[in-house]
Amino acid sequence: MERIGYITRSPERLDATFAALSDSTRRAILARLALGEATVAELAAPFDMSQPAISKHLKVLESAGLIVRERDAQRRPSRLNAQPLAEATQWLAEYSQFWSSSFARLDDLLEDLKTSKKKAKKHKHKKH
Amino acid sequence: MIYPESFAVSTPNEREILVTRVFDAPRQLVFEAFTKPELVRKWLLGPPGWTMPVCEIDLKVGGAYRYVWEHEPDGNQMGMGGVFREIISPRLLVATEQFDVAWYAGEALDTTIFAEEGSTTRMTITVLYESTEARDTARRSGMEHGMAASYNRIEELLLSSLAA
Q1: B12 interfaces chain A, CB cutoff of 8 Å
Q2: Residues 6+ apart with CB under 8 A from A22
Q3: If you average pLDDT over residues B138-153, what whole number do you get?
């Protein structure tokens, strides 16, 4: 029963993570940051977007904890923070794991039930 | 872990989780496996190591069910239960669900549908969370579209990483 693991992760944080991931530009930014840190200018370059627009997306990603931004440096480069993403995927993985393990067992049980029903039928026929 | 093709877990919107699976058995049998305590406790156990010392099902509208799992190696227990809201044997079950130690606010509503597909049965569970908290968080973040897409994407990632 993997559900116990869920309580260690806050639902609010998962919501924020999934919300931040719901935008294709933000997913592209994360993909870029997976290769290494980058400044707003560097992130804006491949998109047809202004730097303030990119900054808005960075704010969403930052408040969801998906990225970390350097506070002091003039360039303020952004870095990927993998932890919340790992938690979000882990959550669904555990849920899937619980059910898939249970269903595999149910397959075997249903086979047994089918066999015993057939046997019961045969037995009945023999009686007659 | 290799999942059968018929098994899928998805999150169609911010309040629901959908679990679907096809079983190679007649619908009546699958329905019984989901509603008879002596059968449920044999399979609804998750990963290896768990048993179900408590499995009580009062299969009638307004009737309660109660499950308690125990992790054999360390004796940890986990309980949940709820009340049946609607029963159409062997097609439909609607019941509330609430965990003793809740990781989400309030109770959720489970709708389980058993559909005949030839000699097999397609089972679909929809878990609807009533958590206003979760819904409002989603609303505050101004997200309306793309949720399902991102979930599906994560699932793809998951499945590919699990398959690897």
Answers
A1: no
A2: B143, B145, B146, B147, B149, B150
A3: 33
Residues of B in contact with A100 (CB under 8 A): 1, 3, 7
**What CATH number has the domain bearing residue A54?**
1.10.10.10
Per CB-CB distance under 8 Å, the chain A contacts of B48 are 101
Domain count for chain A, please give it: 1
In a domain, A75, yes or no: yes
In the 8-state DSSP scheme, what is residue B105? S
Q: Which of B5, B44, B133 to mutate to test the interface with A (most CBs of A within 10 A)?
A: B44
Q: Is residue A88 part of a domain?
A: yes
pLDDT at position B4? 63
Domains of chain B (ranges; CATH) run 16-130 (3.30.530.20)
Please list every residue in chain B whose beta carbon sits closer than 8 Å to the beta carbon of residue A1. Answer: 45-47, 50, 69, 71, 78
CA B96: distance to chain centroid?
11
CB-CB contact of B94 with B84 (8 Å): yes
CB within 8 Å of chain A, chain B residues 68-127: 69, 71, 76, 78, 99, 101-105
Reply yes or no: is the peptide bond before residue B47 cis, omega within 30 of 0. Answer: no
pTM, entire model? 0.62
Name the residue of chain A whose CA is nearest to B15's CA. A15
Is residue A13 included in any domain, yes or no? yes
Q: What ipTM score was computed for the predicted complex, to two decimals? A: 0.73
Mean pLDDT by 10 residues, chain A (128 residues): 39 75 83 84 85 92 88 80 69 76 94 88 66
